[in-house]
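Lecture notes, continued. The same structure-token format from the folding unit now serves as the input rather than the output. Read the line below as a description of shape only.
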């Protein structure tokens, strides 16, 4: 089984969503899957085919069995109808040229299907919100579900954690119930064998990780560091070459 994962958080491996994505991929690998991870911030996505990584990335998607998309939920969806990162939005938009209109589908309306042969069987969402109230991955999932319904295969499930920003802070303070991380690993193992994300992984990831008071302390301590990290300049790069 081949798995292609794309982390669309601008904070890469330091992101809160990575705390769920990494053990999820570890679980897949432990079960014999070949999991390949890319960071969207390392990819060039533009309207110019001469300087765009989507061309080779789309071919990799076609050869994979499972596509894993990781994205934090920003501003409760107020950055757009999906609430996802700009990188995930652009990634989904750049897949459109690889589709064509078709009425030969099991729907009551026309749909955009992939122009090329696509081996994908499942798409998985890994997401989280920094708010105390658990909103799940609903806003992020809406646009990806549409992609699954019209263009690519069905959705295997989602691993969504509320209070995503607090996960790393809770680990640092020794306050985190590691069952949240363990369930993500279990979900990867189960997906490799059953091709479905178990409901328990979704439910456990949504459970309360820390108290509301601790949540406030972590958020207040985290805000200055996070603001400073966003000031790091990003160099201009051209597209990568396909392997």
């Amino acid at each position: 089984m081949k798995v292609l994962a794309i982390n669309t958080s601008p904070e890469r491996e330091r992101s809160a969503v990575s705390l769920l994505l990494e053990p999820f991929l570890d679980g897949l690998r432990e079960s014999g899957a070949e999991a390949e991870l890319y960071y969207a911030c390392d990819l060039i996505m533009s309207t110019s085919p001469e300087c765009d990584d989507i061309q080779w990335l789309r071919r990799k998607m076609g050869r994979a069995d499972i596509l894993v998309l990781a994205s934090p939920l920003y501003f409760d969806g107020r950055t757009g109808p999906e609430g996802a990162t700009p990188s995930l939005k652009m990634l989904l938009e750049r897949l459109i040229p690889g589709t064509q209109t078709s009425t030969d589908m099991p729907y009551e309306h026309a749909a955009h299907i992939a122009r090329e042969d696509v081996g994908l069987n499942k798409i998985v969402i890994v997401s989280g919100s920094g708010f105390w109230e658990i909103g799940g991955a609903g806003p992020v999932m809406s646009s990806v579900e549409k992609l699954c319904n019209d263009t690519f295969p069905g959705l295997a499930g989602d691993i969504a954690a509320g209070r995503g920003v607090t996960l790393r802070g809770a680990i640092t303070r020794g306050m985190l119930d590691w069952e949240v991380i363990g369930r993500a690993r279990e979900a990867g193992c189960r997906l490799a064998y059953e091709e479905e994300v178990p409901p328990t992984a979704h439910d456990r990831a949504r459970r309360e990780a820390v108290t509301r008071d601790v949540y406030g302390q972590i958020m207040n301590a985290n805000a200055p560091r996070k603001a400073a990290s966003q000031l790091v300049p990003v160099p201009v790069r051209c597209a990568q070459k396909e392997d």
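Point for the exam: Confidence is low (pLDDT under 50) at residues 227-235.
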